[in-house]
Write a structure and sequence with these properties.
single chain; 414 residues; OB fold (Dihydrolipoamide Acetyltransferase, E2P); five-stranded antiparallel β-sheet; 9 strands; 12% strand
Length: 414
């Protein structure tokens, strides 16, 4: 038996600064039970909602002319002189011979017009096949890009794993889950006639539940981030609904949105709301995870910090983060819509006329509502993290459930 008088005990690093304060080691276990009690009902409700809303695969608008896409290579191009009534610099006239992947050769017109693919002999192309009264008709609609995209994807995966290692692998799994939910649930369900807003809420909940914990692991900090994301997400959705309704935005701003509404009878106003909510979610979880982990690290570095001190220190980090993320949101929306933005500005003389157009107003709503959601996420997540993580010693995993850590100045018996 060793008696250590005033010396360091085997758990010395667990004592909060050696000020005589006692705390129970099982507290992390209790708090994680609270985390489970928070997440499990939401996860179950999300799963039930997804099963209930899962698309049947019957899309409205299936009465369109069926088009089959085939892959092939250009083997010959015979250019001819265009008719006199064709548009200058927009028409290419001639016949293209394409060898399809099954070995058959077909002839089609040389692609022409604005935006038509520029092709040369040897190019790998995508050919559309359609049944018309005169027989089967073919048209070159695009280049094949799968090989180049695979190269980029592999480079992305290698870079991410080399930098983030195992965390990079889990983030890739989370990314796959996100794409899976969007492609196999969100898009088919909306095309099948479901409410875009309802689908977006259920999909966002599923993404939050799975991706946050897959990427960051099950911990109290992750649960704090989840709750902060959920609260900000609800606020964002409510403000989006008020803005879209109050500004009389229809969601129809270009040919694609008009085609969706006329062909598939999609509720474009609901789709606009859904796009704002889903778009904001991607940045929300970045902010909330950063705030939760920041407070956790601050609490670990200074165990004697009070809730107020942790909140103020974490908020200072949040202020800097928000300042940079706001610019990111605006640039992301502007970059994605730059061609239409240029067209709108070119067709209007006054600044007021440009800003109040439906397209620009829609982008302003996206940016402003997203920013408000992010701003709200910082105090919500930081405050919750400061309260829950101040006393939770998440780094102490070696305690038996019934052990109590005492002041290191007291004698300990080993």
């Amino acid at each position: 038996m060793d008696i250590n008088q005033g010396g360091a005990t085997s758990h010395d690093h667990h004592a909060h600064g050696g000020h005589g304060r006692k705390f129970l080691a099982p507290e992390p276990k209790r708090l994680r039970l609270i985390a489970l009690a928070t997440i499990i009902p939401i996860a179950i409700a999300t799963l039930v909602a997804m099963i209930w809303l899962w698309p049947s695969g019957d899309f409205r608008g299936d009465n369109q002319m069926p088009v089959t896409e085939l892959k092939g290579s250009v083997v010959d191009i015979k250019k001819t002189e265009c008719p006199a009534d064709s548009f200058d610099n927009t028409e290419n006239c001639g016949v293209v011979t394409v060898e399809l992947s099954d070995g058959d050769r077909v002839e089609t017109d040389l692609p022409g017009g604005l935006g038509a693919p520029k092709i040369s002999v040897g190019d790998k192309v995508v050919v559309a096949s359609m049944e018309v009264p005169e027989g089967e008709m073919f048209a070159i609609v695009d280049h094949q890009r799968s090989q180049g995209l695979w190269v980029l994807l592999i480079a992305f995966v290698i870079a991410l794993i080399m930098f983030a290692r195992w965390r990079g692998v889990t983030s890739l799994i989370g990314l796959a889950v996100t794409f899976g939910i969007l492609l196999f649930f969100v898009v088919p369900a909306i095309l099948g006639g479901a409410s875009p807003v309802l689908i977006a809420i259920v999909a966002s909940s599923a993404i939050m539940v799975t991706v946050l914990y897959l990427t960051h692991g099950f911990s109290l900090a992750t649960t704090v981030a989840f709750v902060g994301t959920l609260a900000s997400f609800i606020l964002t959705g409510f403000l989006s609904w008020l803005s879209v309704k109050g500004l009389h935005l229809s969601g129809v701003t270009d040919d694609i949105s008009m085609s969706l509404e006329s062909t598939f009878a999609v509720d474009m106003r609901g789709l606009l709301l859904a796009s704002i909510v889903i778009g904001t979610l991607g940045v929300l979880d970045d902010v909330t995870v950063t705030q939760a982990v920041t407070v956790r690290e601050l609490a670990h570095a200074n165990p004697d910090a009070t809730v107020g001190e942790l909140f103020r220190a974490g908020s200072r980090v949040g202020h800097s983060h928000i300042a940079s993320v706001v610019n990111t949101i605006v640039l992301a929306y502007a970059g994605a819509s730059l061609p239409v933005l240029i067209l709108v500005v070119a067709g209007n003389d006054s600044f007021a006329a440009v800003v109040t157009t439906q397209f620009i107003s829609q982008e302003i709503v996206r940016s402003v509502i997203g920013t408000i959601g992010l701003i709200a996420a910082v105090p919500i997540t930081t405050g919750l993290a400061a309260i829950l993580l101040r006393e939770s010693d998440e780094f102490d995993e070696d305690f038996p459930d019934d052990e109590v850590v005492t002041d290191p100045s007291e004698p300990s018996v080993e």
